[in-house]
Write a structure and sequence with these properties.
The protein has helices spanning 57-67, 101-115, 127-136, 150-158, 188-192, 213-217, 241-244, 257-266, 271-274, 278-288, 293-299; strands spanning 52-53, 74-78, 143-147, 173-178, 204-206, 220-224, 227-228, 233-234, 247-252. The chain has 300 residues and is an alpha+beta fold. Helix 4 (150-158) crosses helix 8 (257-266). The longest helix is centred in the middle third of the chain and has 15 residues, at 101-115.
Amino acid sequence: MAKLPSIPRLPGDEATFGGGGFSGPVVAREPAARKPPKKAVAKKPVAKKPVEEVRTVNDFLKVVFDFAHQDDVLFRGQRRASWGLEPTLARITARNDGDTPLDVEDELMRRFKRQYLPHFNGVLTDDWEVLAVAQHHGLNTRMLDWSQNPLAALWFAVRKPAEGEPGKPKEPGAVFMFQPAKHEDYADVERESKKSPYEVNRTLFYQPNHRTQRIVAQSGWLSVHAWSEADGKFSRLDKLDHYSVRIKQVHIPPGAFSDIRNHLDRIGVNEATLFPDLDGLCTHLNWYHSLLKDEIRSRR
């Protein structure tokens, strides 16, 4: 039987049907239809709570009670509403060129630990307590002051006349109200595991031990801000989506500062009660017997 001539194969004709059956030229398939690329889904903006304006202590307390349905709400007062919720170390300009806020922090804390003992009764047991005491006495730290007392926060917002940028109108003051989550926002686990506040990788809230009269009088809490290596700066609480949705701002117009300040004093909220030491007493006495600039204008 004559042998059939083999069919010449062209490059690419490698398809085989069956295990050892007929081989032949491949019929070209139509290219599969490409699926259109998925459209990028725009990230929904975080729904922040509306800002409210108050002109009296009563108006302020109404907003507080509308927002704070539990007793774990924290409050912070600032004389200028435009200031972000970031620690003082994030706002400084280092004296030495090239120093980062972390460099400044390291030097400040090294010196404070060496020099605080003659001015303090007792010994601070860990870095959390050292930072808390240093913060309450004015040292630049990665911490930010908060209080469980809304009237204390209101006092810190209006204790001095309103101010603003040169050549611009004076800014309103602000009280920030924050509702922490039950467990995840607190630094308890980090402290119990002996983790240093310099090692936190997210901003946490911390209630310091009652080491000073100021911490007690102000019902003090602190936020401990994490350092972002990617951004090269400390985190800002009101710019973090996880926290910002639980923050409410209350603004106090500049013209209401003096009245609110006087009304707070009449109910026992002033420099002497919030700073129960000689500095606080003397500051309060000076204010009680003289007028601040906005109080002079209100008399005219």
